[in-house]
Amino acid sequence: NDGIEQTSFGQAEGPSAGFTLSVSGEPPQGVTLTHRSEHPRAGTPAHGAPDRRPETGGEHFGSRGLGLDVTPACFVCCFPEDLVRDNISAFVSCKAAGERVVQMFRWGARLDYREREPDRVQVKVGACKLHVPNLEQLHRLTYEAVGVITSDMISLARG
User: Fold this and answer.
1) Residue 158 CB partners (closer than 8 Å, separation 6+)
2) pLDDT tens digit string along 19-46?
3) For residue 95, is it left (φ>0), alpha (ψ between -120 and 50) or beta?
4) CA distance 143 to 56
């Protein structure tokens, strides 16, 4: 780790009861360092999945099934207001992908992105009570497409 100047290791008791090794200096007397390697994931971002799209078109859309959540409107009739309603929560690849999915709907969907969880981005799609069957159909279509959503699927589910 950056800023670590020494490390301790060894046994808690006994003849080789542990020692402190200075990372930036020479090893203690009698200790030979043979190889100091870089961390295997050095340079890998801690968070932020890549923006990837399915080869078949559309966007990745891992529906978790129907539930209840706050959505901006019904994705079919556009009945407004932020109300708790039936919805689909679906995982998407990244924030940019989620924004594209929300744009595909034009209404009735919102992005659930949290800075503290940048790899767990979801899109929430809502439906009023009258249009729950449409929401169920959207879930089926994306499930059958192995977690992919397209504009055509949205149109088909809207009826």
Assistant:
1) 75, 76, 134
2) 555 555 666 677 665 555 676 666 555 5
3) alpha
4) 15
